[in-house]
């Protein structure tokens, strides 16, 4: 366990008490609202020998030396250690021989949000929190509900009309109380009131403009970087491409790679790419400065979990610091890549996950990613989270039941 000394503004470096996880940086509000990050004691990431790349471990907690809690304090359901697939057929179609995918569908609630929830709720229990609260359209709420149940804590999820049914069912099954609001923005208002008046521990953003999730939760995403580096024998990819809403996993991976660089485990940090729906981060990147624009919601998207119309400073700055990029991806491209991953690689992911492949395709076409580059896509969640989107795209017909002879005729026509 690393000793936490403060929470620190990602933009200006101002430090606040370790209990300031419910706020952004007051000093930066006028210029660009910025999230806080966990600051540890000096030397926690000093040079040291790296572990065996193929060693076994307890998921996130194999790297507990760089986390704000010990293995004994951890709330865990066995998250992490997700496989890194070599996408040979999909990569060949793009002209990439080194295309990989980190498969987060294998986590306990079938999404990468389990890493955030495990870390946040481990700290919540350590601090004596009495209730967990989240604002979520699906994956984050399901993860918060599951890990709160494991920790023996009540959980309330604020959501909005239009959230996908399977994920709401998942949350309820874990015992969470669901508060569904007609107006999407009202969920943050109510959640802010609950945090302020009742002291509930928030795992997700709950005020606007959003700056990102709970700083302690974001630390869980560092494990993605550690696992990718270990699985590639400490030869990190040239590019890491992530579906991005508020950039929590983006900054988490960057922090993980930065720690490994400081310790001498890797020799560089990959270029990080934000795959997004409405283009706020890309617009800000092109304009320069720190201001994230609120984009027009020109259409409803199948990628509900990354459907924010305004990005965050943390996402913009991580892309900028690593020489990365931000790519806007349309719904048809996401659905096409969802089908490609399923049929060519045996991976069924939600549309938001497929956004990463759409971004890679665009960067290859514009020659920003070279054929010789190694590229990793983060597959954030399972397609079973929202199967109705897949069904609509495939325009499935209801098949009539066949009698025995009809079945034989059909079989004769199949390869």
Write a brief structural summary:
This protein is of the alpha/beta class.
Task: Describe this structure as you would to a colleague.
- With 415 residues, this protein is of the alpha/beta class.
- The chain has two domains: 84-110 and 217-394, 3-Layer(aba) Sandwich (Rossmann fold); 111-213, Rossmann fold (3-Layer(aba) Sandwich).
- Helices cover 36% and strands 14% of the residues.
- It is built from 14 helices and 13 strands.
- The model has no long low-confidence stretch (mean pLDDT 93).
Layout of helices and strands:
Layout: E1 4-9, E2 15-16, E3 36-40, E4 84-86, H1 88-94, E5 98-103, H2 113-126, E6 132-135, H3 139-151, E7 155-160, H4 165-173, E8 177-181, H5 186-198, E9 201-202, H6 215-218, H7 222-231, E10 239-243, H8 248-263, E11 271-276, H9 280-287, H10 313-321, E12 325-328, H11 331-345, H12 351-365, E13 374-379, H13 387-394, H14 404-413
Parallel strand pairs: 5-13, 6-7, 6-9, 7-8, 10-11, 10-13, 11-12
Antiparallel strand pairs: 1-2, 1-3, 4-5
Rg is 21 Å
What is the helix content? 25-40%
Low-confidence stretches: none
**Tally of helical runs:** 14
Distance between the termini: 57 Å
The average pLDDT score comes to 93
Principal-axis shape: globular
Arrangement of strands in the largest sheet: 4-5-13-10-11-12
CATH fold description of the largest domain: Rossmann fold
For the largest beta-sheet, the strand count, sense and barrel status come to:
6 strands, mixed
Element string (H = helix, E = strand): EEEEHEHEHEHEHEHHEHEHHEHHEHH
The domain tally reads 2
Structural class assignment: alpha/beta
CATH architecture verdict of the largest domain: 3-Layer(aba) Sandwich
Number of strands: 13
Strand content: 5-15%
CATH top level of the largest domain is Alpha Beta
């Amino acid at each position: 366990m690393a000793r936490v000394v403060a929470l620190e503004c990602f933009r200006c470096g101002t430090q606040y008490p370790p209990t300031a996880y419910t706020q952004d940086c007051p000093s930066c509000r006028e210029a660009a609202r910025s999230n806080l990050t966990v600051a540890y004691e000096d030397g926690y990431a000093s040079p040291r020998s790296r572990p065996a790349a193929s060693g076994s471990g307890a998921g996130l907690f194999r790297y507990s030396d760089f986390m704000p809690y010990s293995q004994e304090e951890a709330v865990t359901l066995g998250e992490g250690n997700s496989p890194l697939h070599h996408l040979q057929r999909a990569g060949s179609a793009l002209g990439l021989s080194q295309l990989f995918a980190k498969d987060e569908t294998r986590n306990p609630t079938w999404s990468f949000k389990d890493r955030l929830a495990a870390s946040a709720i481990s700290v919540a229990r350590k601090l004596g929190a009495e209730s967990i609260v989240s604002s979520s359209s699906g994956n984050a709420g399901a993860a918060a509900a599951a890990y709160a149940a494991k920790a023996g804590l009540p959980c309330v999820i604020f959501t909005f009309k239009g959230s996908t049914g399977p994920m709401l069912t998942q949350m309820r099954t874990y015992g969470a109380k669901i508060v569904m609001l007609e107006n999407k923005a009202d969920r943050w208002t109510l959640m802010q009131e609950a945090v302020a008046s009742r002291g509930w521990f928030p795992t997700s953003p709950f005020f606007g403009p959003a700056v990102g999730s709970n700083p302690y939760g974001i630390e869980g995403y560092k494990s993605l970087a550690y696992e990718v580096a270990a699985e590639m024998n400490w030869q990190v990819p040239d590019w890491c491409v992530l579906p991005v809403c508020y950039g929590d996993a983006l900054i988490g991976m960057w922090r993980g790679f930065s720690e490994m660089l400081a310790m001498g485990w890797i020799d560089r940090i990959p270029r990080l790419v934000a795959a997004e729906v409405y283009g706020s981060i890309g617009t800000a990147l092109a304009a320069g400065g720190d201001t994230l624009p609120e984009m027009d919601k020109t259409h409803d998207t199948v990628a509900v979990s990354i459907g924010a119309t305004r990005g965050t400073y943390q996402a913009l700055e991580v892309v900028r610091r690593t020489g990365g990029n931000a790519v806007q991806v349309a719904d048809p491209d996401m659905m096409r890549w969802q089908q490609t991953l399923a049929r060519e690689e045996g991976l069924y992911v939600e549309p938001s996950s497929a956004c990463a492949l759409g971004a890679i395709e665009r960067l290859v076409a514009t020659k920003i990613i070279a054929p010789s580059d190694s590229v990793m896509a983060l597959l954030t969640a399972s397609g079973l989270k929202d199967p109705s989107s897949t069904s609509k795209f495939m325009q499935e017909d209801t098949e009539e039941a066949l009698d025995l002879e009809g079945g034989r005729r059909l079989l004769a026509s199949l390869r």
